[in-house]
Amino acid sequence: MAEGENAITNRDKVVTSFIAGAIAGSLAKTTIAPLDRTKINFQIHNEQFSFPKAVKFLVTSYKEHGLLSWWRGNTATMARVVPFASCQYAAHEHWKIILKVDTNERRKEHYFRTFLAGSLAGCTASALTYPLDVARARMAVSKPDRYRNIIEVFREIWRKEGPRHLYRGFAPTMLGVIPYAGASFFTYETLKRLRAEQTGSTELHPIERLVFGAVGGLFGQSSSYPLDIVRRRMQTAPLTGQNYTSILGTLIMVYKNEGLIGGLYKGLSMNWIKGPIAVGISFMTFDISSQAMQKALASRFWTRWRTA
């Protein structure tokens, strides 16, 4: 796309990344929403995870509340995921430009900057959308008739707990985002670069993007999972009656009561299924969507229309 590259500005890249991020995030999260809800249920309760128990949870939810119960809380999820994914992908494009790792040649020379761009993108998006994540977690673990919509969650937290609790568990989230987003974006960008060097072309098949994204998600989630457990416990403590007030205290309490594998890494095996699927779909959808929009922007007709 030589001609197109000249017509695409950095602003165009950030804007198209913002829109493509929304498409990618919503599609990926909706696909794995039932597994996500199951994972959260095990994370916040003192119950050993197993695949038979996970299947039982889904079957029980279906029998008692219907098929749509698997997507309960998905409205809140979309209310968070769409702005989060938009902000994260747009921020990643922005940070790549600032850190000068927006080409394969530069990424090959600066591994740390490539990792840092992903970490900063995740931190930026998390800081902007965190209250939505708290609301999603509350809706996912509460009784079906407790909250009618995400606004009611915000009202209850604000009235009963105070506005600062909208950022409850924010510290472990940020600590977890740094390795998660950094490793995910770094792995994905690196695998794409290596493939381009091997084939001599930057054009990838959608399946290749899906697989590379899945590998990135696998590395990212494995590196940050204990902090994800801490985040969920702190977010939902008022509903579960547990006294989780600090990162270290929560880590120690979960480890003492439930152990390393059964506590801090509870549900990781499910994450190894749903995580790579979600991240793979997200990266693949983002690349295809953003490239399509950038090609449209770079077309002769569009270029003439914008400069007219």
From TrEMBL:
<dbReference type="InterPro" id="IPR023395">
    <property type="entry name" value="MCP_dom_sf"/>
</dbReference>
<keyword id="KW-0472">Membrane</keyword>
<dbReference type="GO" id="GO:0055085">
    <property type="term" value="P:transmembrane transport"/>
</dbReference>
<dbReference type="InterPro" id="IPR002067">
    <property type="entry name" value="MCP"/>
</dbReference>
<dbReference type="GO" id="GO:0005743">
    <property type="term" value="C:mitochondrial inner membrane"/>
</dbReference>
<feature type="repeat" description="Solcar">
    <location>
        <begin position="109"/>
        <end position="194"/>
    </location>
</feature>
<keyword id="KW-0677">Repeat</keyword>
<keyword id="KW-0999">Mitochondrion inner membrane</keyword>
<keyword id="KW-0813">Transport</keyword>
<comment type="similarity">
    <text>Belongs to the mitochondrial carrier (TC 2.A.29) family.</text>
</comment>
<keyword id="KW-0812">Transmembrane</keyword>
<protein>
    <recommendedName>
        <fullName>Solute carrier protein</fullName>
    </recommendedName>
</protein>
<feature type="repeat" description="Solcar">
    <location>
        <begin position="204"/>
        <end position="292"/>
    </location>
</feature>
<dbReference type="Pfam" id="PF00153">
    <property type="entry name" value="Mito_carr"/>
</dbReference>
<dbReference type="InterPro" id="IPR018108">
    <property type="entry name" value="MCP_transmembrane"/>
</dbReference>
<keyword id="KW-0496">Mitochondrion</keyword>
<feature type="repeat" description="Solcar">
    <location>
        <begin position="12"/>
        <end position="98"/>
    </location>
</feature>
<dbReference type="InterPro" id="IPR002167">
    <property type="entry name" value="GDC-like"/>
</dbReference>
